[in-house]
Amino acid sequence: MFNNCTFSCMCEEFIMRGMLLPSIMHHVHKTHVIWKGIFLSSFLFGITHLMNILHQSAYQTMLQMIGTFLLGIILAVIYLKSGNLIMPILLHGLLDACSIGISTSHSTTMLNNHGNPLGTLILFVLALLFLATVVSKKQQAKIKKRFNV
């Protein structure tokens, strides 16, 4: 199961951050390209988790989609600032591995947002903190130069 989780994280990060995020930034109107890329790619990342409604409640699915959107913001910022997918893949894999361990042991932690509003709130605060790191014009200029937008 860990191997499937690892492969899934790598694929999701390659598609969402490695392909989709830069593509959005290149194809949206030239104002606020970084913000549009972060939010749209994160929104789509959250929407992809709608299929989990087949095996969990609508409430849990909604919280998971919100949490995944917020996690997408964090992973997007990490990718944009670092310029590589290694850290987003590792963080995504670590969180998925913890989530799998949590769901099999039926325990809960604060970052498990499957039906846990506290986990979603913590991800919200972390997403805001990560977004704050790309607010400055200097940081945005570095990112635009790195991604040729």
Explain this structure:
The chain is mainly α and 149 residues long. 75% of the residues lie in helices and 0% in strands. The protein contains six helices and no strands. It has helices spanning 2-27, 33-47, 58-82, 86-105, 117-132, 137-146. Helix 3 runs antiparallel to helix 4 (86-105) and helix 3 packs parallel to helix 5.
In short:
The protein is mainly α and 149 residues long. It has helices at residues 2-27, 33-47, 58-82, 86-105, 117-132, 137-146.
Structural class: mainly alpha
Number of helices: 6
Query: Helical amount among residues, as a percent range?
Result: over 70%
Strand content: under 5%
Characterize the biggest β-sheet. none
How far apart the termini lie comes to 39 Å
Features:
globular; 149 residues; single chain; mainly alpha
Layout of helices and strands, plus pairs?
Layout: H1 2-27, H2 33-47, H3 58-82, H4 86-105, H5 117-132, H6 137-146
Helix pairs in contact: 1-2, 1-4, 2-3, 3-4, 3-5
